[in-house]
Amino acid sequence: MRNNQTFKLSALSAAMLSMATGFATPAFAAEEAEVEKIMVTGSRIARAEVASTSPITVVSKAQMTKLGITDVSTALRRLPAITGASANNQSSSGANNIQTATLRGIEATNTLILLNGRRMVGSDEDGLVDLSTVPFEAIAQIEVLKDGASAIYGSDAIAGVVNIITKRNYEGFEVNARYGQSSEGDAEEREVGLVMGFSTDKGSVMIAASSSNNDGWEEKDRYMTRDTDREYMGGTDVSSGTTPFSRLSGFGLDGTDGKTWTVPDASNPSQVVLFDYDEMGYNYRAAQSGANDNKTNSVFVTADYELSDDVIFFTELSFHDGFVQGNQAPPGTDTGWYGDNVDTPNAFKRYPDADGNNFGVGPNQKYNPFGIAGNVTRRFSEYGPRIYKTDNNIKRYTLGLQGTIFEEYDWEVNFSSQSAELISRGGAQPSINQIERALSDECETEADPTCVALNVFGPEGSITTEMLDFINTTAPVVTNKNDLMFMQAHISGPIVSMPAGDLMFSSGIEYREDQLSMEVDQAQRTATFDVSWGESSTPVISPVREITELYLELAIPVLDSLEVEAAVRYSDYSDIDESTTNPKFGVIYQPLDMLKLRASYSTGFRAPTMAQMYQGRTSSLTTNLYDPCNPNNEANFSSSDPRCVALGLDPQYSQNAIQSFDVIGGGNPDLKPEEAENMTLGLVVEPLDNLSFTLDYFDIEQTNVVFASTDYVIDQNLAGNPEYAGDVLRSNNGTGYIQTVIAPANNIAARNLSGFDFNANYVLETDIGEWRINLDTTLMDSFEVQDTSDTPFRDIVGTYDAAFGSIPEWKAAMQLDWSMGNFRATWDFNYNSDLKVLVADTDPNDADKVIYKTRTYKVGDVEKEDIMDATFIHNMQVGYFIDSIGTDVHFGIQNVFDKEPPYLDKGVTSTDDNLYSFRGRFFYMGVKKEF
């Protein structure tokens, strides 16, 4: 049995690659035919024919190496089917915790991540799996099932499945090293890894380990991110009005009708000038990271041992330690903003005046030169940048038995215990309560002798270390702990012999326990919120979610050229008041040797995450400002929208100088599972032995989606819907800019997606080497989003959307490989079509109807459309294998032509950094030594 098992596993890679590219699989020798059974992603039946009714893309380790890729996240983001808001280590500003994949552009919670066909524990409050946690050296290939698979794998597989397949039965010792640096002299990457393994007649062991130490870069060191005043690129100014010198209102100053003042001379603090946003706005990009530093250490161990001729024991052990660090601008405070914020309803209101205004700085505060109360906005640049740090620790233990019974039936039982701890530490933060004390009349008097008064009237440097120590609070800390345990048992084999072959089945049972514990330090808790410019949250201790599932899968050979698949899974969740049953049907038909037709239909579901159900009220800041009444966030209100006029908004208070607003959300224990219907239609054409084409159509209809849309809430508020009357809070007693939007999640949304995947693969052997061309393309035909059940669908194909990120109409990746003897070379490119930013507007023909149009912005008197242009990003690599020392060396360039990302005026990052990177041209070299 040992030899048979080995053959099955070693045949997997070649067979899956053959299926992915469309090549015919060569027939094996007669004596090997009895063990020629392969299990592909999307099915639990191992069978001789390598055929799937659903589209599958396979990325081999060799392909990734030729592209200079050394992690799963980067490999997946290159695939055209991966689009939208995939988090990665190239995102700017702050500690980005984990790396994810958004298949078809739907949130990452809808893509199931597997390791060797088994679930992996999540890292954050939404249970998202960190793709960086498996050592690259352990990976054999990545299989991406681009179809719903709830009937096969259960919850979360609505958009599809990513299955990371590790090496098996590896013998030998291999060391890899890689070093890279950008053309700007930063973004250094240092990686080293090893894999070793041995096997005997009875068993095998493989150990893979990797360590990386990668640097990010600073926003000030890149052309497109060096300044918040983006007019030099034809964009708008998104500088902050919270500056290292004071911005004052009140204090008895003339012209307090929306104007603010500042003190230009520290020696004359009572002499003020008008605050000029265009000239005095703060460039926070000078202090922020463009990409974060990250370090990882990972170990993966797999072993198996033959207990008898029919039983094998196996185990997988995995350990990961990750660290991410990034910078954001120094913190600050705005006593007027906090005075109206729902998180701090009573803050900075000690000194009201006769006109009903509330002020936070006392008239007799130690440094107040005016003798009259007022409000101040001040950034505490004396702190230096806020340093955000994240530690991610994961442990996985899996063991089981597998074997055969009655010579024809494969079985397996396994147990897995997994845990993850993600600790996020915010940068230096002042306390709201302490700032309020330090700005009061009582500070440093007999009424409050231990207080240290805060001098917010001087220029940068006027706040001393003693003052900072007094207002400082503990850096915000959030600790996520996820625990996953599962037990599985399944059996598969033939049921009955039919004229076209054996009717095959697979059946199994799974029991799973899942739990989230999220701890939040006291300063961030909503009820006691005390972190200036932070986000409020609440701890989560979820119940143990117990999931029991049963499944059955059939493979029915109707004719020699026609096979039908059917599967069904029953799932019961202990904390959701309903069970769910999801079927899948598929068919594959080969009328000609060169042509295969395939189709599938399935239903799917996604259980709400623990945080979505059990977290209390949360508050988060967003820089994706949306306000139809002030679309450009200009200092002078200019909208003629009748909805805005009806609000009685005041032009003098229209500008949100903080460049963000507060979003109030939280958990909902009454949430139900999201549901979906998936359909695929496809064909595989192989006109020549070395030429193949695949074309697949996909259609996903998703309902009952858990969604929270601030844009929708704002639109409904403007439309006068009484249910949303109190959900949008504006400054200046409701007449100014948006401060807070209350948008909790609920089962209110729906999506309809459809499109086409096309692949062409050609191998040409010549006297001057072997050439291989592979082209992958995805056309997103429609991506219709319905924010709530009572609103019309809107199509976001070809747009950048705040909720979904970039959804290009066309994405493509082409790879050209050449090899001859010990030499090889690769050239590849990625293409994204152009993207627009849409905003809601009133239909000129129907005042009650909301329409979406391309967002425009003004630079001076010139009006521009907010569009990201189409891009080609090229990469290359050359390599040589040195026979005499058994060493492979390669050198490569990513972004060969140093292509800048396309400009995006929306938000504050100048592009969509989930899709593009500001890193620029990147040089790298690698060495692999086999022993």
UniProtKB/TrEMBL annotation:
<keyword id="KW-0675">Receptor</keyword>
<dbReference type="InterPro" id="IPR039426">
    <property type="entry name" value="TonB-dep_rcpt-like"/>
</dbReference>
<keyword id="KW-0998">Cell outer membrane</keyword>
<keyword id="KW-0472">Membrane</keyword>
<keyword id="KW-0812">Transmembrane</keyword>
<keyword id="KW-0798">TonB box</keyword>
<feature type="signal peptide">
    <location>
        <begin position="1"/>
        <end position="29"/>
    </location>
</feature>
<keyword id="KW-0732">Signal</keyword>
<dbReference type="GO" id="GO:0009279">
    <property type="term" value="C:cell outer membrane"/>
</dbReference>
<dbReference type="Pfam" id="PF00593">
    <property type="entry name" value="TonB_dep_Rec_b-barrel"/>
</dbReference>
<dbReference type="InterPro" id="IPR000531">
    <property type="entry name" value="Beta-barrel_TonB"/>
</dbReference>
<protein>
    <submittedName>
        <fullName>TonB-dependent receptor</fullName>
    </submittedName>
</protein>
<keyword id="KW-0813">Transport</keyword>
<dbReference type="Pfam" id="PF07715">
    <property type="entry name" value="Plug"/>
</dbReference>
<comment type="similarity">
    <text>Belongs to the TonB-dependent receptor family.</text>
</comment>
<dbReference type="InterPro" id="IPR037066">
    <property type="entry name" value="Plug_dom_sf"/>
</dbReference>
<feature type="domain" description="TonB-dependent receptor plug">
    <location>
        <begin position="52"/>
        <end position="161"/>
    </location>
</feature>
<keyword id="KW-1134">Transmembrane beta strand</keyword>
<feature type="domain" description="TonB-dependent receptor-like beta-barrel">
    <location>
        <begin position="336"/>
        <end position="895"/>
    </location>
</feature>
<dbReference type="InterPro" id="IPR012910">
    <property type="entry name" value="Plug_dom"/>
</dbReference>
<dbReference type="InterPro" id="IPR036942">
    <property type="entry name" value="Beta-barrel_TonB_sf"/>
</dbReference>
